[in-house]
Amino acid sequence: MNYSYPIQSYLNDEVNNKVEDDNPHSIVLNILIELKNNISTLAYCLEHDGTVSEVKSKSFSKSLTAIYILQSSLDMKLGGEIAENLYNLYEYCRTTIIKAFRNKDFLSVQSLVPILNEILDGWKGIKN
What is the pLDDT of residues 16-32, one digit of tens each? Predict the structure, then answer.
């Protein structure tokens, strides 16, 4: 897996306390969980907060950073079709988040949670 500078800044925040080892499987799992949490927070903020708030901005930013990390960590050669499909799902999430943030469309953001639940379920089923 390819980890670059963004993972360091992301892990320095809340995820850092949750990742106890350098196991790549564990890191990706925690990033997926945090992504789901940030997307849920963003949807709530878009629905209930008409202004630009710090929480809304942070959840937006952290969601995009998590997606970038997840996309960057994919090994397209070894992962083949699965890696390509995951990349496309992450890209769909990324573009949906950006459009929804701009349009204050909390329903579009909420629609991403079931997708992330499926990815999380699959990831949890993988033996590391």
Answer: 555 455 788 889 999 99
Task: Using CB atoms within 10 Å of the CB of residue 12, give its burial: 0 to 12 exposed, 13 to 18 middle, 19+ buried.
Answer: exposed
Backbone φ and ψ for 21, nearest 5 degrees, come out as: -140, 180
Amino acid letter for position 81: E
Tell me the longest C-alpha to C-alpha distance in the chain: 44
5-124 CATH fold:
Four Helix Bundle (Hemerythrin (Met), subunit A) (1.20.120)
Gap between the Cα atoms of 35 and 75, Å rounded: 20
Contacts by residues 47-51 (CB-CB < 8 Å, ≥ 24 positions apart): 47/106, 50/104
Q: Are 60 and 43 in contact (CB under 8 A)?
A: no
pTM, whole model, 2 decimals? 0.80
Q: Report how far residue 18's alpha carbon sits from residue 70's, in angstroms, rounded to the nearest whole number.
A: 17
Residue 4 three-state SS? coil
Alpha helices in 49-111 (DSSP H): 54-73, 76-103, 106-110
Burial class (CB in 10 A: 0-12, 13-18, 19+), 82: exposed
